[in-house]
Design goal:
homodimer; about 260 residues; mainly alpha; two-stranded antiparallel ribbon; 10 helices; DNA-binding
Amino acid sequence: MTETAPSYKDPLFEPLTRQSASHRISTVIEQKILRRSLRPGDALPTETELAEQFAVNRSTVREALRRLESAGLVGREGGAKRLKVMRPGHAETASRVGRTLALDDVTFIELWEAMRAVAPRVAALAAERGSAADLAALEAIVSAVETARAAEGAVTHVVEFFGKLAELSGNRVLQLAMQPVMRLLAPSLRRMIDRVPQGRTRILVAQRCIVEAIREHKPDEAESWMTRHVQDFRRGYELAGIALDTRVGIGTMAD
Amino acid sequence: MTETAPSYKDPLFEPLTRQSASHRISTVIEQKILRRSLRPGDALPTETELAEQFAVNRSTVREALRRLESAGLVGREGGAKRLKVMRPGHAETASRVGRTLALDDVTFIELWEAMRAVAPRVAALAAERGSAADLAALEAIVSAVETARAAEGAVTHVVEFFGKLAELSGNRVLQLAMQPVMRLLAPSLRRMIDRVPQGRTRILVAQRCIVEAIREHKPDEAESWMTRHVQDFRRGYELAGIALDTRVGIGTMAD
DNA sequence: AGGACTATATTGTCCGACAATCGGACTATC
DNA sequence: GATAGTCCGATTGTCGGACAATATAGTCCT
């Protein structure tokens, strides 16, 4: 007899039946990582050792490891063999968020609204904090946008621009928020640039103004320029005849 | 000789050569899900069938499944045996984002800046779109904040308030962005309310104004009230003597 | 038809095995 | 001495088979 009968209407205590061994193992390791007992960079014991310590079969350990791997808590560097504890990279988390949103049939307008909220503040923060070196990197990206031949490449650099900006803002939360949004936005952005001839020029002008505001440490200007920039995007989409409630597709989740 | 020599500073062309069979399998299934060939609710073939179809061992399939499971793309309902395709819930994704941020030692100020960016826009959108029924729910939460005895409960309802607001905004991207931020903010918010006597009153006043603005469909007012509200939070923290660069801890990641 | 009972299918785990290959140690060569 | 080549053990990825537990489906009884 296991403890059945949580017959109370407590919907949060139901499904705590027996969890599989592999699940418990991944939980234990996960806790160790979250509690900092295992820290990023540390190498995990070998599968055989883990199997011995947990007194289970190696296959069971392996399933637990796959789960942690997918969660981004452990992983390999390069072609290494041993697994290491990793800090779940923003890239990975971002791609997960992107996946969730894509499966939710999020529409373009929702993404745009998110950009509308976040990007201006990011620009303002970047203007407050950006250093000279950062600025140089940003400018490099702007020229890359300018010289890029195909729309394809230009879009890549536009995404980079926002990414770099988020980095400059020094705010990892906003950084993490913006990443998946830009990723999902990218494909339709590409279409937009393809169809609207003056699109690239307008983007370039806006980027230059923003960079200028950042250089002179004028947060307000950076913010208002970015606001206009984002609004320009929307106009571009309308000009390109892209419906605002278009569902975003699944980008290449290459991780 | 494989292509070694990534001696160039091109960190994007890593030798992502051969991936393990289990990895490829999980990727293939993931694609099928993202492409909607497999849709949420569908049951996956049994492990044995998958093993046959992919012409690999069942253990290999299992590792792939554990990975997908951890990604929230497949899972079980209740004590079921078969795996089903699932839509990765926002809650789960949000808690994962929270974990990433917590492990990153994100500071309070970063979270606050995110709120500063997102919340006002969310309020504005809610004012544009909120229906009567939604409004009633929102008001219920506000009174819950008012009548809650302990700071504990009040904070819970404050978090709910923002959650509901995000829901009203009709924007799932912003909703997903705000959720983990509020979750991470909650513990310190609780301390703040404990230490600053007038904290709760100010929160209540702001909430009422925001609700009012939403009822009358005045986005601009809702936005500016929310801006003030968020700024009030920060002042509260300063009054409470909480350093702005305090790292947020790992909350209860109960999933 | 509904409920109890049985059989089957499916999962979770275990065992033992093997090829591939990564990490080093060790050696030969310049 | 530094570099290149070779060898060996350790470790991973995969395999095939096995078994207990149990969810699911089918069967029987009333």
